[in-house]
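As a warm-up, study this chain.
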Amino acid sequence: MKKIFYLFMIISLISCCKKEPKIRDDDKKDTIIPDPNNINISILIDLSDRIDPETNPNPTMQYFQRDTEYIKAIEKGFLNHIKSKKIITYDDQMQVFFNPEPLDPKMNEFTKELKVSFNKNTERNYFDSVDKKYADLPLNIYQSAIHDGNYVGSDIWEFFKNKVKDYCIKDDRRNILFILTDGYMYHENTKFEEENKTSYLTTKLIKANNLTTSDFKNVVTKNGYGFVKANDNLSNLEVIVLGINPEKGNPFEEGVIKEYWENWFKEMKIKNYQIKSADLPSNLEPIILKAISGK
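Now compare it with the structure written out below.
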């Protein structure tokens, strides 16, 4: 009887001490953690008539020339970032987009050339190659668009709705989108309203909504004015808008434009954003470089 009792006790102890089966690492759900040292920079260019030196002249410095200098500053910040890293850690890229694409077929070739990437196998002379591309090709893009003269507008809303996640966001990188625009948003193929929100913003709409006084923020809030939300969660995207250029006549126009953009970004859960006016490139370059370095 004692033998049976002791046998029972041993079996009980073995059962109690038995460890739970381990979950293998490959059974766990895969998670991708973004590496802030690897950056993915996108540049969205608004090629509407805002760049036309005849329609919107600026004797100090034409707007298309300002844009090309902004792009050079972005490229400078990108290369500075890469040069600060060890070669073994290179995993960065930069590209340029338009929406819609211009009619000139050469534009497709330009954008291919301007899509550059660095990895641990990148040769040192590639830096000079990128530098040359970004010194020459952006100006060619603007000159081609101005020569063509067919300014169809810039469909920024549709880009955010259907393309920004696929084109500008990589889960394993820090994603930065620069938008070069005057702040107005309009395209004939994406023009609609939902209650008091719109997919577009023009100076005519600003006047129609009576956003011409210092009380414009309260008017926006009270009436629910703003852009229709184009996406649900863009928290893994930083956005810097460069070139806000309000039409003359309404001293609060610039504030209204920025209010629309800020509220839109917040609604799409974009936490890190900046909206800058069409200042001289020498004034904006330090801001651009700081935005890229993250310091």
